[in-house]
Write a structure and sequence with these properties.
The chain has 217 residues and is of the alpha/beta class. The protein is built from nine helices and six strands, in the order βαααααβαβαβαββα. Helices cover 43% and strands 12% of the residues. A six-stranded parallel sheet has the order 3-2-1-4-5-6, with helices on both faces. β4, α8 and β5 form a beta-alpha-beta unit. α1 crosses α4. Pfam families: Hydrolase (PF00702).
Length: 217
């Protein structure tokens, strides 16, 4: 019995939201826009372009196309300065336990992330070889909650959508998995991720027995 297991990156495998926060805050403040943690929450799972559009809207700013591109590049350079310092110690607790269990039991594993930096991050934390397929922000034209990212992942794993399981920390990501007709597993706050089929605070709450049952389903 083989199923496709598709992992989101930020908030599921690593906590890069804290680096997105530092980089977006610096950028927003440089154009006299305030930026706080609550706003950063609303950027989870949202693409880089959409994130900057939201920040400009919050600050009531309108800028030229050229300036928009230059601000995006600035934010990403700053973000990458944090990413470049990442290591294996930043993998979230018990993620390797689940990845190893899946691998040992011949399950298909993919990444489904909105980030254009996903491959770089996986290399930094030494997990790139754990994924048979990687679908990231460079491969999709429609952002979550559109199911495109996960449907491409399923295809690359040669699995039907209904035989795929998605781990996601964002509401949009859970919605994308549900629309794709996949089993959705929320990682985070149960009040926020209530649309998910199953919800866990983090991977320390997920037992290998639970995964075993999912595979049988
Ligand atoms: P980048 P995920 C998402 O990653 C982040 O949650 C989101 O905050 C970020 O804006 C987006 O990636 C794009 O990232 O600027 O690196 O292309 O949660 O889908 O893995
Ligand atoms: Mg995420």
């Amino acid at each position: 019995n083989t199923k496709g297991f598709i992992f989101d990156l930020d908030g599921v495998i690593v906590d890069t939201a804290k680096y997105h926060f530092l980089a977006w805050k610096k950028l927003a403040n440089s154009i006299d826009v305030d930026f706080n943690k609550e706003q950063n929450e609303q950027l989870k799972g949202v693409s880089r372009v959409k994130s900057l559009e939201k920040i400009l809207a919050w600050g009531n700013k309108s800028i030229s196309e050229d300036e928009f591109m230059s601000l995006m590049a600035k934010k990403n350079d700053d973000y990458l300065s944090y990413i470049n310092k990442m290591g294996e110690d930043e993998i979230l607790p018990d993620v390797p336990k689940i990845l190893n269990y899946l691998k040992t039991n011949n399950q298909a594993i993919a990444l489904g992330s909105a980030s254009k930096n996903a491959r770089k991050i996986l290399e930094k934390v030494n997990l790139i070889s754990s994924f048979q397929a990687i679908v990231d922000g460079n491969d999709v034209s429609k952002a979550k909650p559109d199911p495109e990212v996960f449907l491409i992942g399923a295809k690359l794993l040669n699995q039907k959508p209904e035989n795929c399981v998605v781990f996601e920390d964002s509401v949009a990501g859970i919605q994308a998995a549900n629309i794709a007709n996949m089993i959705s597993i929320g990682i985070g706050d149960k009040n926020v991720l209530h649309e998910a089929d199953y919800i866990f605070k983090d991977f320390t709450e997920i037992s290998t027995d639970f995964i075993k049952e999912l595979v049988k389903k």
